[in-house]
Amino acid sequence: MIFKEVEKINEELLEETYTLVTALFHHCLDTYMHSFRVGDELYAFSNFLGFSNAQDIFVLGLLHDIGKLKIPYSLLNKTTPLTESEFAEIRNHADYGKKILYKLDVFPPDYTMCIKYHHENFDGSGYFGIAGKEIPLLARMIRVIDSYDTMLNGRIYQHTKCHDVVVHELLSNKGILYDPDIVDRFIQFLSKRFTLQATRI
To answer: What is the pLDDT of residues 161-172, one digit of tens each?
Structure first.
């Protein structure tokens, strides 16, 4: 079972998570806020799917971009086009994140692998070239939610898009960037959430 080791190290894991997230807050506020949104969305989505360890999965979502601590603030917030070498350095954040967690020795191996592979594309065209179900399940979930939040809320390098356009982008890239099953379930999750929100208005 994913993250079965968490119960043994929960307190120390949470302390290290707090330390890392605090460092991210001071390093890059935009990345910090994005990480919290991804963590919240991953938590809610995993609950929707029936995961029994959604709280632990929230921590994973919160730390998915922690490797950006190793990327200079000026590069993370560059508004002009990246050079080839700058883009290569940005891509390194996935491996940096894996190494940060591995070195701390309190996070289960599942965390480190999901963080390393959270930019893999379903067709194998991602950062490390693994494809399909070779990509850890939660990394495939983060891939969808990370993109969803980036398109919806924007980043320094990307303008915001309306919700319908974001959903269309996810559906259009099923089987290319994203696991088709996860996209379908995520759309179901969004439909249920927005229906519930509408009934409260």
So the answer is: 999 999 999 999
Q: From the CB of residue 101, how many other CB atoms can be counted at a distance below 10 Å?
A: 27
Q: Hey, CA dihedral for 78, 83, 87, 89, is it positive or negative?
A: negative
Rounded CA-CA distance 144/181 in Å is 11
Q: Is residue 195 within 8 Å of 140, Cβ to Cβ?
A: no
Could you give the CA distance from residue 185 to residue 189 in angstroms, rounded to a whole number?
6
Distance in angstroms (rounded) separating the CA atoms of residues 75 and 81: 11
Q: Which residues contact 158 (CB under 8 A, 6 or more apart)?
A: 150, 151
pLDDT digits (tens, 9 = 90+) for 132-142: 999 999 999 99
CB atoms within 10 A of CB 85: 8
CB 182 within 8 A of CB 121: no
- DSSP string for residues in the chain: -TTTTHHHHHHHHHHHHHHHHHHHHHH-HHHHHHHHHHHHHHHHHHHHHT-S-HHHHHHHHHTTTGGGGGS-HHHHT--SPPPHHHHHHHHTHHHHHHHHHHHHT-S-HHHHHHHHTTT--TTS-SSS---GGGS-HHHHHHHHHHHHHHHHH-BTTB----HHHHHHHHHHTBTTTB-HHHHHHHHHHHHHHHHHHHHH-
